[in-house]
Design a protein that fits this description.
57% of the residues lie in helices and 0% in strands. It is built from 20 helices and no strands.
Length: 416
């Protein structure tokens, strides 16, 4: 995903982006957040000084500022003297001095780099940090594994993390706001929609995009007038398409005449999301737009169009998705498989037992993207039997097991 936030985003998307999210956040994808099983047995309190530290000493080691090192001329020690040897003094010239200066500078740079990277914490060291320090670590680290471990800790310690995430969503750095809005939405925090609505007015375009995406996932009805304002005022295509997608998920049919003009937008991705939003609201008038954009020159629009086929019940959509799967050169086959699964699920009886059985069968699907999607859909049923099925998946040492465990932790549901 590039600069635009992916409004239509199935669970296997994301590379990804917790190392380069569509809206700019450097993060690793949710499905790939492998839980860390190692646990530190060291008692951190026993290592603390009796007198509370202050200043830089009060910060965790990996958050302390790296001392600056200024390059200085190399010195020589000959018979106790720091002066250059006579031979160099006599034969020295500008070239020699330049070489020595460059060597000195290189040594200083190498030392600085070594100190800088030595500040990155080991993932196992994160357990002793408070949620506020975890957020600071996420913000300052450039290590994907450390960022993954930080997110894992924040989710596993959900109750303890919520206040810090709420504060970060309002007052954090740009990266912290992006992370907080995403996690609060995933955790279904009671104030997540309120915080996301407020973030629509954030000066950062990336944060605005993330706020729209969060509201889409939350299906927040109170967000309706705020999303309408965003569509009226914003010029950013990433914000526009995410706001359009959110309106489709809110299921407010009064938004149809507001969304329809975006079918003529100059940006392919905006047109795809407008067409899919209309389908979500019950009108499949723009199916041809989606099918045409399967071959868009915009790779992101291609991906969204193929995934968006799942929102249509027309046989043309089914045939288009199947053609991508059957093509030896077809791109985004996972999206096409998920689209077919969505179409089939929409045709299944609303009876909760039948739907749960259908989704559980998909957990053995040949495509990993479908299996991850089925885990998410099972969780939305709020059915005790479905939760039991997800717990069983979470015990597996598989990608689906990691994904299921993360989802349970995020919702505050015990794994046992």
């Amino acid at each position: 995903m590039q600069a635009n936030d992916a409004a239509l985003r199935p669970p296997h998307w994301g590379a990804h982006p917790l190392s380069g999210a569509g809206d700019g956040e450097r993060r690793a994808p949710p499905p790939s957040d492998a839980p860390f099983s190692s646990r530190s047995s060291t008692c951190l309190l026993a290592l603390m000084p009796s007198t509370p530290p202050s200043g830089e000493a009060a910060r965790p080691p990996h958050l302390r500022r790296v001392p600056s090192i200024s390059p200085s001329p190399l010195t020589f020690s000959v018979s106790g003297s720091s002066a250059p040897p006579d031979s160099i003094q006599k034969k020295g010239n500008g070239v020699t001095r330049l070489v020595l200066a460059l060597l000195s500078f290189g040594v200083a740079c190498l030392t600085s780099a070594t100190l800088l990277f030595s500040q990155e914490p080991n993932p196992s060291e994160l357990e002793g940090l408070t949620p506020k320090d975890l957020l600071a670590t996420f913000d300052e680290s450039r290590s994907q594994s450390v960022r993954q471990a930080t997110v894992h800790q924040l989710i596993r310690r959900r109750t303890e993390s919520l206040p810090a995430l709420q504060e970060a969503a309002m007052k954090g750095t740009e990266d912290q706001k992006l992370l907080a809005l995403r996690l609060l939405s995933e955790m279904r925090y009671e104030k997540a929609a309120e915080l996301a609505i407020a973030a629509l007015a954030d000066p950062s375009i990336k944060v605005q995009r993330r706020a729209c995406t969060a509201l889409m996932g939350l299906k927040s009805t109170p967000a309706y007038p705020h999303l309408i304002r965003v569509l009226r005022d914003s010029k950013d295509t990433g914000v526009i398409k995410s706001a359009v997608a959110a309106l489709g998920q809110i299921e407010a049919r009064k938004a149809i005449p507001i969304i329809r003009p975006f079918l003529a937008h100059e940006n392919d991705s905006v047109r795809v999301n407008a067409a899919v939003a209309l389908a979500s609201l019950g009108t499949e008038e723009a199916l041809d737009t989606v099918i045409a954009l399967i071959h868009s020159g915009d790779i992101q629009a291609q991906r969204e169009a193929i995934y968006g086929l799942g929102y249509f019940r027309n046989t043309k959509a089914t045939e288009a998705a199947q053609a991508i799967i059957d093509s030896p050169t077809g791109r985004w086959k996972s999206e096409a498989h998920i689209a077919l699964a969505q179409q089939k699920l929409s045709a299944v009886s609303p009876d909760i037992d039948i739907r749960r059985s259908f989704l559980q069968n998909l957990l053995s699907h040949q495509n990993s993207g479908v299996r991850l999607w089925a885990v998410d859909e099972l969780l939305t049923t709020n059915d005790p039997a479905a939760v039991a099925a997800i717990r069983a998946i979470a015990r597996q040492q598989t990608r689906e097991g990691q994904h299921a465990a993360r989802k349970l932790d995020a919702r505050g549901i015990t794994r046992e």
